[in-house]
Structures are given as C-alpha cells and as structure tokens.
Amino acid sequence: RSDELAEAGHEQVVFCRDDATGLRAIISIHDTTLGPALGGTRFHPYRSEDEALTDGLRLAQGMTFKAAAAGMALGGGKAVIIGDPAELKSPDLLRAYGRFIERLGGLYVTAADVGTTSADLDVIGETTRHVVGRGEHTGGSGDSGLSTATGVFHAMRAAARHVWGVDGLRGRTVGVEGAGKVGSHLVRLLVEEGARVAVADPCDTAVERLRVAHGADVRRLASVVNAAVDVYAPCALGATLTPATVAGLRARLVCGAANNQLATSDVDDLLTERGITWVPDYVANAGGLIQVGGELWHRTPEEVADQVRRVGDTAEQIVVGAAAEGTSTGAAADRLVRARLAEARRQDGRP
Ligand code: NAI
Ligand code: K
Predict the structure, then answer these.
(1) Which residue among 41, 63, 181 is best mutated to probe the pocket of ligand 1, counting the most ligand atoms within 8 A of its Cβ?
(2) N vs C: which end of the chain shows fewer Cβ within 10 Å?
(3) By the 8 A CB rule, do 177 and 225 touch?
(4) Which residues of the chain fall short of a pLDDT of 70?
(5) What span, in angstroms and rounded, lies between the C-alpha atoms of 329 and 308?
C-alpha cells in the first residue's frame, strides 16, 4: 500500500464475509472526529482484495474531507463490495451486508455509490437502520443529482465573482462534461442564469434530452476540456485534469461535480501557475452528501437547500483564502479541513 494511505491513518477497517451469499465487503472508517462516518457502498468487480481495500481507504478519506469542508457533523467512511453487481448482487447478499453495518452500531452509515441504487438501499435497510439515500416512497430523500448540481452552481457563481469581479454567469460560456444525473440539472440552472452552455457526452440520448429542453442555448461538442469556454465543469469521470489538459485549458475557472478531478497531485499547482481558479472537487460536489446527511437529522427540505447554498460560501472562502496566501486552492481547502478537525479534537479534549 502506498505511503500516502498509510499516513492517512484510518480508524477502523472491517472485512466482511458471508459464504452463503458470496458477500465479500470492506468497510473503511477513516475519521469519526466530527460524527458518524457516512459514505456510500461501491459494488465493483475489483481484481483483488488489495485493489478493493486501496480504493475503499482512499474513498473513505475523501468523505472525511468532503463532510468537514461542508461544515457537517459527519466523519468519513466508505464501503466496497467485491464482485460484478450484475452477477453477484442478490437481496440475500444485501441483507447479509446490512447485518455487518448494523453491528457497527451507527459508527458507519451507508448510502448509494457506483454499482448500488436506492432500491438496493431499501433491501439493505431491512437489516440495518444505518442507511440513507433510500427512495422517497421508503422515507429517503431520493436522487441527489439536483442537490449536487445546485451546490456546484453556487460554487461556480461564487468563484466567478472572484475571477471576473462581477456577479453571476450571464453571458459566460460554460463547458459541461457529462449530461447525467448531475450535469443535466447543472445545464438547466446555467441556462436559466443566462449562460451559454456547451455539452460533451458520448450518450446521444442524454444530449438530445437537453437539446429538446433548451434548444439553441445548448450546443454539443465532442469534448469540452480544451474548448474555447470560460468555465470548464467536469461532471462525468474523474482524473480529467492532467498536465496535458491543464496546459491546453482555455477556461479561467474549473468547477464541477466529478470526484477526484486531479489525475496527479501536482496538477493543483499547475492550475495555480496558469492563473486558473479551481474549486476543489470535494468542496463543489458536497450537495449530495448534504442531502443524505439531512435525512440522518430529519432536516426539512428548506434547511437542506440552505446548506447547499452555503457550498458557494465555502468555495468563496477557499478561492479568496488561496489568493491571499499565495497557495493553490487545493492546499487552501485541505487547510480548512485540518483546522476544523483540529478544533473539534481540541473541544473534545483530545490530543
Ligand atoms: P451519471 O452516471 O448519471 O452521469 C455521467 C454522465 O457522463 C453520463 O451521461 C455519461 O454518458 C457521461 N460520460 C461518460 N464518459 C464521458 C466522457 N468521457 N465525456 C463526457 N461525458 C461522459 O453520474 P452523475 O450522478 O451525474 O455523477 C457525475 C459525476 O459526479 C461522477 O463523477 C460522480 O462520482 C460525481 N458525483 C455525483 C454525485 C451525485 O449526487 N450524483 C455526488 C458527488 C459526486
Ligand atoms: K457519490
């Protein structure tokens, strides 16, 4: 395992196995300083247990940062189930998995991720109380794409004020990569704001739906990362910011929903050197976590919407703070997170 992960200092890692259903899962709890570790369950055909562990540990740490940056009383955790969901997933396996979560007594709370759906969470919820993100008919808050898109939108507006010195995105051209559950809502919010939108998505139906809804306000490009746009919004896959794409970026602002946007950690500094403002991914895309966290505390939709709006305030604090201190935005966001964790430990009387 990499030194980086060893240094991350996870609190607890639980290996789960149920031979009757073929379940092999790893629950990684990174940090519970701020609250219970919340993070989704990824169901993926990892090639080895080691690969699954590495992915789970990395994702769990990411959740600690996402929750702390959003100012939530939540820690970071994530679970991975090893196997092809299309072949291995069964109600019995999900129920067996739920029993393992239940045993942790609420220290870990699960949600959906790649390979799991709200319907799966309903089944997991038959054997554990510690699950959020279920369907609306079973008391959950439903799909989180709109909350995530709204948070990205507020972050983008706040950062745009810093970049161009004027409020709003009217007249700016925004390149949205990925027109899925998040990207499609983001496109609508941008069009309503008066921005021009270019979308890239290999899926014809996803783009066609947007063209029908918004007409000439949305055009399609094969790729937006190096297109002539003011803002680049990665909302598909991670790792699209590489030394090569950053060298070719024409946008002055990067703000999107995709997780782990930096292909390598040095890209953060390359963006700063080129004078491009990057809203760190885990800051911009916290809206979904805010929504499912709201389920835990029985928040009203208005309270959740208000906290999603504050994603913009956090983004502003980070881009302004980075500029003032002459660091990258990634470093400024990490500083904010470490300060919040240290403050919480101090209040608990912990070293
Ligand atoms: P999704 O699966 O609904 O949509 C992704 C879209 O990207 C699909 O339409 C797909 O065709 C398209 N796509 C795939 N490869 C592409 C490429 N190379 N170029 C352009 N488009 C491509 O996923 P969703 O839920 O919209 O999430 C988007 C991203 O945001 C993911 O990285 C996800 O991890 C992240 N995210 C999502 C949250 C949520 O609440 N849904 C919360 C936080 C992060
Ligand atoms: K997620």
Answers:
(1) 181
(2) C
(3) yes
(4) 1-5
(5) 20
Q: Which pairing describes strands 277-278 and 253-254: parallel, antiparallel, or unpaired?
A: parallel
What the chain holds in terms of domains, given with CATH numbers, is 3-63+75-138 (3.40.50.10860), 145-338 (3.40.50.720)
Q: Which atom of ligand 1 is nearest to the CA of 256?
A: 30
For residue 133, CA distances in Å to 79, 139, 304, 310 come to: 15, 9, 14, 21
- Dist. CA 262 → ligand 1 center (Å): 16
Q: Are 255 and 235 in contact (CB under 8 A)?
A: no
Ligand 1 neighbours by CB, cut-off 6 Å: 144-145, 148, 177-183, 200-203, 206, 235-238, 257-259, 285, 288
The pLDDT value recorded for residue 42 is: 96
Q: Could you report the per-residue pLDDT of 20-76, keeping only the tens digit for each?
A: 999 999 999 999 999 999 999 999 999 999 999 999 999 999 999 999 999 999 999
Ligand 1 pocket, mutate which of 235, 255, 259, 282 (most atoms under 8 A from CB): 235
Please indicate whether residue 78 is annotated as part of the active site: yes
- Terminal-residue alpha carbon distance, the chain: 27
Helices (H), the chain: 3-8, 49-69, 85-88, 91-103, 118-124, 145-164, 183-193, 204-214, 243-248, 267-273, 281-284, 287-296, 301-325, 329-347
